[in-house]
Amino acid sequence: MSEAAVTGPPPLPIELYVTELGSTDFPLEAVALCTVHYSESGPLLRRLIERAAAGA
């Protein structure tokens, strides 16, 4: 994966990459994009973690 692919805008909505993080395989592209675009993915990730901690 090129650096431009990670640092540029995500090619798809960040929600799709956040969802991909729950897959059984290690989604390298999704991890990279969610990390670089944390201002967008962070709130979604926090909500997912809170739901998981609550047993949802």
Describe this structure in words.
The chain is globular. Helix content is 66%, strand content 0%. Helix 2 packs across helix 3 and helix 3 packs across helix 4. It has 56 residues and is an all-alpha fold.
Keywords:
4 helices, 56 residues, mainly alpha
- Report the total helices: 4
Mean pLDDT: 84
Proportion of helical residues: 55-70%
Instruction: Please provide the ordered H/E string of secondary-structure elements.
Output: HHHH
The total count of strands amounts to: 0
Distance between the termini: 34 Å
Largest sheet, in brief, is: none
| pLDDT < 50 stretches | none
Q: Determine the structural class based on helices, strands and strand pairing.
A: mainly alpha
Q: What's the Cα radius of gyration?
A: 12 Å
The geometry reads as globular
In terms of DSSP E residues, the strand content is under 5%
